Amino acid sequence: MAAKKAEQALVEQWRGILALHARTQCELDRALHGHGLCASDFEVLDLLAEGAAADGGCAFRVQEISDRVHLSQSALSRLIGRLEKDGLVERAMCSEDRRGVRVVLTGKGRALHAEVRPVQRAVLSRMLDEMG
Question: Which residues of 103-123 are buried (b: 16+ CB within 10 A; e: fewer)?
Fold first, then answer.
C-alpha cells in the first residue's frame, strides 16, 4: 500500500511539472507575441546572446542549438529561417568545418533580445514561484 501511495505521489509530481511547463510556455507565448516572437524564438535568441563571442559572432552550430533548445532539427531549421527572414539572425559557414553552419545574432536580433529579455525573465520568475 505504501509503495502504491509513493508511486501515485511520484506520478502527481510529474504531472504537476508538465502542467507548470505547459502554463509557462503559454504565458511566455502570450507575453512575447506583441514583440513578434514565441517562446521557442526567444529561446534561440537567448542562447545565441549568451554564447556571443567578443566580436559579436556566435559560438553555436545549428546542431548545438538543436541539442540545447529541445526542438527537432526540422523545426529548428524552420524557426531559424523565420528569424533570418525577420533579420534577427544570419547563417554563416563554419570556418573550421565547411559542412557546418553557424547561426549569428544580428544587431537587430541583439537589440530585440535586450528589449524582450526582461519580459521573458519576469514571466519565468512569476510562473516558477508557483513551484516554491
Answer: bbbbeebbebbeebeebbeeb
